[in-house]
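Comment thread on ticket #2218

A.B. wrote:
> Attaching the input chain for the structure job we discussed in standup.
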Amino acid sequence: MKHGFVKVAAMTPKIRVADPVYNAKEICKGIEEATVKGAKIIVFPELCLTGYTCNDLFLQELLLTQAKEALHIVADATEGSDALVFVGLPLEKDQKLYNVAAVLQDGEVLAFIPKKYIPSYAEFYEARHFTPGNAVPEVYFYEGKEVPFGTDILFESDAVNGLVVGCEICEDIWVPDSPGISHALAGATVLVNLSASNETVGKDAYREMLVKATSAKLIAAYIYASIGEGESTQDLVFGGHNVIAENGTILMQAKRFEPENTYADIDIHRLRHERRRMTTYLPKRADHYTVVPVHMEKEDTALERKFAPRPFVPSNQAQRDKRCDEILSIQSYGLKKRYEHTGCQSAVIGISGGLDSTLALLVTVRAFDMLGIDRSKITSVTMPCFGTTDRTYDNACKLAKTLGTTLEEVDIKEAVTIHFRDIKQDIDCHDVTYENGQARERTQILMDIANRTGGMVIGTGDMSELALGWATYNGDHMSMYGVNVGVPKTLVRHLVQYYADTCDNDRLKEVLLDVLDTPVSPELLPPVDGVISQKTEDLVGPYELHDFFLYYMLRCGFEPAKIYRIACEAFNGIYDKGVILKWLKIFYRRFFAQQFKRSCLPDGPKVGSVAVSPRGDLRMPSDACAAIWMQQLEAL
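C.D. wrote:
> Ran it. Output below, let me know if you need it in another format.
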């Protein structure tokens, strides 16, 4: 349960229709399996103690009696366990029959949750047997004890802050006003559904979409357990389609038509962060809700959940291509609007032969094509200095010419040397002044050429550099529109690769591929034997790590210890734990110290769910203290 992770299970036992004792034994086996695996919420299907397809046998006194006795067997099987178990059965109350979920823990029946919406259409005839459940909880006497009976009951765990569970049954999720909506607004972060959904062509996709969308809309985890083998196939077939989702993402689902219990690790802290972040998510707890306190031991959940090492980059090629095209469109449309508004007809962009300036130039070309402005109005400026290598210089020139832009070269060595003499900077001292003096000289040149041509300077810096403050203040930090400000470094590479793959220009593709093969560097220090000597990732750390840290800090609100834990899982075999911790400390130190640069960023388009604009997603004081974050890191 550490860091808010809770293991949950959706179970589909192989049952016998109208044989509660046999079914109870199979359910008990499932509980034992799930408990061994560390599951704290275990969900079985609708009416699984008797079978969903009993039809008029539900009216038989013997079956109902046997179902209650079978429930006693299952309840006994939970003794000594703090897992919350949901089991479906028919239950008589006040001479009416209800389709209910019994909620069990440590040998006790905590509550009965009745199904609210009873379908009687198409292949469903439940209204022939069952009565719709009451919302306001009432007292039900079970084995001499008062047990709450009603839909509006929540179960609140003391092991994880915010772990609150609500329950609905099958059809309840398919209706416009499901009990789950009320449960979530009343505080439930986890919704369980005991289901008996039969298979028809295409229904699985709709069911998956429904669970996924419900979890997204309610910012909740959703555990959907459906019946499978053993049910009658007289007219219907049930595939055991179990689905576990979290905030719009399918964490795990069962393969249909095969007995398969489904497990996943849900993240309560992430759900709480999302609800805090979403100002339109407004809690609304009705006074009649009953909240049942549930004690669970605070254990360290063994994680099976996988964390993508590159959260900004889809692993699927088709999805990645689609995202790249979408991002390029967002960037170019943003720039297009700025040109339409200002009436400018020219652009100035500093090109280095590196990834960021390459992407910015490609976006600018795309925007000018949309505007119908000739590409020659784009002035591509190369400004060689002390650290420029032949490789990057040649690539910059080839790129500018191949794209049909106007290439200008301004060698800044002499100007920088004079500047160093004026400020009494030793030219042999390769410190921050040596580096930043070159960066600011380049920005001054770009701004002045923009004035001369009546154009705008297009910024090239990406979001990862801004997060780390890896930009010279009022140097490459400044522009008139920054097209890359919303793009993390790990995604920049894929955008350039996508452009190379789809440009239908062999010469351009060749240049782009060589740019992709070039080490990331600001080239502010002299090369060694003509080779780049200053590699950015040697200085600030691997960008794939920093992008991972950035995503889970800003998008998910994770604390440093949690980010460290999941980074060790995601990069297992790539970086050892000491290396990850080293760069995580540097990330936090730089992120807090460099906010002043982000506080005065030029305009630029947001392209994903994470952004660092001071006018958008990141309203952070420039002098915020990092002490509590660093203290947690030092304790690791």
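A.B. wrote:
> Thanks. Noting for the ticket: The chain has 19 helices and 20 strands.
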